[in-house]
Amino acid sequence: MRAVQYDAYGGGAAGLKHVEVPIPSAKKNELLLKLDAATINPVDWKIQKGVLRPLLPLKLPFIPGTDVAGVVAHVGPGVKDFMVGDQVVAMLNSLYGGAFAEYAVASVNLTVKRPPEVSAAEGAGLPVAAGTALQALRSIGAKFDGTGEPLNVLITAASGGVGLYAVQLAKLANLHVTATCGARNVELVKSLGADEVLDYRTPEGATMRSPSGRKYDGVVHCTVGVSWASFEPLMSAAGRVIDITPNFSSMLTSALHMVTLRKKRLVPLLLSPNKADLEFLVGLVKEVKLKTVVDSSFPFKRLDAGMAEEHRRPCHRQDRRRDESLIMGMPRDCHRERILFVLFISLVK
Ligand SMILES: NC(=O)c1ccc[n+]([C@@H]2O[C@H](COP(=O)([O-])OP(=O)(O)OC[C@H]3O[C@@H](n4cnc5c(N)ncnc54)[C@H](OP(=O)(O)O)[C@@H]3O)[C@@H](O)[C@H]2O)c1
Fold this sequence. Notes:
The protein has 2 domains: 2-125 and 292-321 and 340-346, Alpha-Beta Complex (Quinone Oxidoreductase, Chain A, domain 1), CATH 3.90.180.10; 132-268, NAD(P)-binding Rossmann-like Domain (Rossmann fold). 26% of the residues lie in helices and 26% in strands. It has helices at residues 42-49, 120-124, 126-140, 161-172, 186-191, 203-207, 228-231, 248-259, 275-286, 303-312, and strands spanning 2-5, 17-20, 30-40, 67-75, 87-91, 103-107, 111-113, 152-155, 176-181, 196-199, 216-221, 235-243, 265-268, 322-328, 340-347. The site of NADP nicotinamide-adenine-dinucleotide phosphate has 33 residues, from helix 1, helix 3, helix 4, strand 9 and strand 14.
């Protein structure tokens, strides 16, 4: 099968190679998927750069990517709930990757059926980005069954892959949303339901203060370079900042808050992938309550160009102007050997 892989850490897009490799085989409780779509998340280039090497030592060569949509081509031993031909959305194991290829192996524990109302691109956008948004909001106390408090939340980097889902999910949970993003994405973020949107490059935006004077019960913090000292005065008495980009210093702050039983707290969050959340998210897309925002598309053969864009314009530079969700792709029925790719890529002008 065709795949894109790298055989050493670093090297950026130039380190990616189009290769022919054997089709992997599904073992116990696994599915072999013929892929229609895959997402690039910031973590994919972080893994290639070696940023997560101590936590995620890779077996090289490595085919990157975890978030996919495809069709079941073969079922491994012990699989009961899926059959050949099922359309699915899956999150692959981060240690093994495998999404940027024609076929990949997924565990049944992180695979859900994709109803016809949900396109492959919409589905492939969900596992990491929407999963993280959902778990961050739950950590703040958001409820999706109508029983939650009408909390006030701040979502930083609301125009990013995680932020765009977080805004929509927060509104589904009946929260009041203040969001930060770059100027040209303000209308997009508003259109997804944010009540107040701040351009983080303006002095008002940089303060992150709610224009209506609200204190935040929770923050879904999706960018970097903001200290606890900046958040603390904005928070309600028991407000929590859920930090999805924790660094050493924020981990220390968070540990200190924990041992001193602080009510206002910084809480690091690492996605804990699970099937129930993925099923919930696919269901919301099916019911047209949640959408995957996609800006552009690329064919599989141009995956390295997409990754080049991602490496050139790395996540969280203060000068970045826009995040875009890019699709790389060709419909499966046009070119069997090509795959539709959804990429969440940060673009800086
Ligand atoms: N902990 C976890 O499990 C987990 C899971 C998923 C992602 N993450 C991490 O979370 C981060 C965000 O992921 P993502 O997929 O949402 O990234 P992304 O799609 O690359 O989005 C980043 C966004 O950052 C915005 N931005 C940059 N500086 C900003 C600032 N000072 N204030 C407000 N917005 C700012 C940009 O806005 P404009 O373009 O509008 O200027 C852009 O939309 C990444 O570092 C990723 O690795 C962690």
